[in-house]
Amino acid sequence: APDIPLAAVKGHxxxxxxxxxxxxxxxxxxxxxxxxxIDYVKGKLDAAGYTTALQSFTYGGATGYNLVADWPGGDxxxxxxxxxxxxxxxxxxxxxxxxxxxxxxxxTALEVSRSALTPQKHLRFAWWxxxxxxxxxxxxxxTNLPAAERSKIKAYxxxxxxxxxxxxxxxxxxxxxxxxGSGPGPAGSDRLERVLQxxxxxxxxxxxxxxxxGRSDYGPFIRYGIxxxxxxxxxxxxxSAAQAQLWGGTAGVAFDRCYHSACDTTxxxxxxxxxRNSDAIAYAVWTVGGAGRQPG
Length: 296
Ligand code: PHE
Ligand code: ZN
Ligand code: ZN
Ligand code: CA
Ligand code: ZN
Known about the structure:
globular, eight-stranded mixed beta sheet, alpha/beta, single chain
């Protein structure tokens, strides 16, 4: 799998920061910064050969959007989806939450195009709206899919907060073998978890499980029995002494002390965490997507 260029991921974050700054300081549902950010991501994907669709929905009296991008090819009955929420809270520009996941999956999608990837599975990327108001966009997408289309989605990877400045390296505990799940997730979630673990093992970064409780956009997917997984570098939780031993950083300080705050800017990012997670995403897409295993 390719090494995703960190500079390119950070370039997307700089763009999301300047879009927020030019639009009242955020990318929140119903605000102009959200729509402008969707247009930025869509423009990159269209130029790279994706088939993109904007799905609109109404929530709280405002129009919201999901952006869905399909990479042509692969088995249409065997879809791997990768998603991140693009909206922020109103308090700030949401560069870690969730510019980080949005930029990391965008650059992975662009790398698919640069590599002219012909994976066995059909790849579909999504940028969700209104996550911060209760997973509204992802829930709208999943529940409004015809059942026949929903059943073609065999796996969903979610990335929400992957560049926390005092990072942990967490993987959703889809099999509950770490005891931080909420019961095992849908069949196949264990494999999605293991693929991510394998990547971090290969770069000698230890990982720990984190709650698989539906606190991000994979929630609606697991409710429909779709195998899901993802990574997370921590939010308002405080890094323990043991975690600081394991990963470095500062014990007694939140993983992201700017969580949902005005200071969640481009300064609020660990480059190492963002780089490692971006590369993990690419490894998972290449591995689970079946790159190089296509017939012919
Ligand atoms: N979904 C939370 C938010 O956007 C962050 C989060 C992600 C929390 C993953 C737990 C696990 O605010
Ligand atoms: Zn949030
Ligand atoms: Zn988030
Ligand atoms: Ca586990
Ligand atoms: Zn890298």
